[in-house]
Amino acid sequence: MAGRPRSEASRRAILRAALDLCERDGYQNVTLKGIAQAAGTGRQTVYRWWPTKAEVMLEALTVFVEAPTGSEDLRTFLLETFRLSGGAVGGVVVGLMADAQSDEAFAVHMRGFIDSRRQALRAVLVRTLSADVDLELAVDMVFGAMWYRLMNRHAPVDESLADEVTTMLARLSS
Amino acid sequence: MAGRPRSEASRRAILRAALDLCERDGYQNVTLKGIAQAAGTGRQTVYRWWPTKAEVMLEALTVFVEAPTGSEDLRTFLLETFRLSGGAVGGVVVGLMADAQSDEAFAVHMRGFIDSRRQALRAVLVRTLSADVDLELAVDMVFGAMWYRLMNRHAPVDESLADEVTTMLARLSS
DNA sequence: CATAAATCGAGACATTGTGTCTTGTAAAGT
DNA sequence: ACTTTACAAGACACAATGTCTCGATTTATG
Predict the structure, then answer these.
(1) pLDDT band at B163 (very low <50, low <70, confident <90, very high)
(2) CB A139 within 8 Å of CB A125
(3) Which residue is nearest to nucleotide C21 (CA to C1')?
(4) A to B CB pairs, distance under 8 Å
(5) Which of A28, A40, A55, B174 could pair with B102 in a Cys bridge, judged by C-beta atoms 3.0 to 4.6 Å apart?
(6) Are B153 and A111 within 8 A, CB to CB?
(7) Quick one: pLDDT at residue B106?
């Protein structure tokens, strides 16, 4: 009761092609057909292992992009996080968040991804803020500001945002 | 050099049908074909005046939903805003934000909509916060937290959020 | 009143992406 | 050998988008 094993080469080729096409054409213009073609694989091979483009991208992110380590310093943590989000990866995660709005099954996985990042920030903030500050709300406001800017594009997500957020939070404990 | 004037009845029927279908089926499941059909109008009549579903919805919001007035009290302002965003309107604006990620022309209009709300909050915050607090960042963090919760759905946008944000901001000026 | 201009509702049409299905081949265990 | 599963390639039905055509309607102009 066993057949041909899953091709690890095809899997990596698909995940790699997904990210590459994303960077070249933008998340919204990437199609599953395009991913399969760029990866030199059949379309069914993609559909067999992932239900949607978003799921492919999410796995590609976790495989090829390492998340910022849990730095102890808030400013450093935010610098790493915002540097990553402001670049090509930012375009992907924004597309994923947009797709999550029309795909509840994927939204669940997206929340898992988001939650891991929330935990990392929470671990930093718990050492930075006073004990009587609402930690969950602080996480919402920091990452909220980041996502808000990523999606609405009224201001960049960059080093200066990390500085400003850091000084803003410092005021809470004075 | 004048022809038949635009039918105001059709315009209102389309905007009304757009919101009604949104509430019944959810933003993502609404199609332009469905809107035209529900409004009892031809499809071309919709396309003649709006390029996309998102533009129809945005106009429908501004016509049928009145924005919270610029209350002087921060907590009251947030209560009104969050009560609106937490209901059926929240589902629409989230859908619009998602669509804006794949339609740059609409994203420009969306930023205009967002910016009017930012100005309203800014007007309240400038009377609430100390003069040396970064006002733009404060707006980003407050509305950011709201949008973050609306899109990721890890926590509700309700009265308690308004309370928590109000007390959090009060700490900045102590 | 006659004509030009622009709208109206209705629906055909091509295009594109999704997701399923089929075909013939390849690689594993039994 | 035989079964099972994956593979690449591509046909297929389906749904939504956006353009186009059609005949009819409603306005301003001469």
Answers:
(1) very high
(2) yes
(3) A44
(4) 125
(5) A28
(6) yes
(7) 98
The answer to whether strand C lies under 7 Å from the CB of residue B1 is yes
CA B16 to centroid of chain Cα atoms: 16
Are B151 and A149 inside 8 Å of each other by CB?
A: no
| Contact residues, chain B, for A132 at CB < 8 Å | none
Q: What number of other Cβ atoms are within 10 A of residue A57's Cβ?
A: 25
Residue ranges in B26-158 assigned as alpha helix (H): 32-39, 43-49, 53-64, 74-86, 88-100, 104-128, 135-152
pTM reported for the whole predicted model: 0.95
Chain A residue closest in CA terms to B166: A137
* Nucleotides on strand C lying under 7 Å from protein C-beta: 4-12, 17-23, 26-30
Contact A95 B107 (CB under 8 A): no
Q: How many CA atoms lie within 13 A of A106 on its CB side?
A: 21
Instruction: Please answer yes or no on whether B142 and A138 come within 8 Å at the CB atom.
Output: no
- The pLDDT, as a whole number, for residue B1 is 63
A59-81 pLDDT, tens per residue? 999 999 988 877 789 999 999 99
Q: Is the pLDDT of residue A1 over 70?
A: no
Measured between its terminal Cα atoms, the distance across chain A in Å is 66
DSSP state at residue B68: P
Residues of chain B with Cβ-Cβ distance to A148 below 8 Å are 140, 143-144, 147-148
Q: What is the dihedral of CA A95, A101, A105, A108, to 10 degrees?
A: 80
- Report the residue count for chain B: 174
For the stretch B86-142, pLDDT in tens is 889 999 999 999 999 999 999 999 999 999 999 999 999 999 999 999 999 999 999
For residue B167, what is the enclosing H or E element? Answer: helix B159-172
What CA–CA distance (Å, rounded) separates B94 from A98? 9
- Classify each residue of B129-157 as buried b or exposed e, where b means 16 or more C-beta atoms within 10 Å of its C-beta: beeebbeebbbbbbbbbbbbbbbbbeeeb
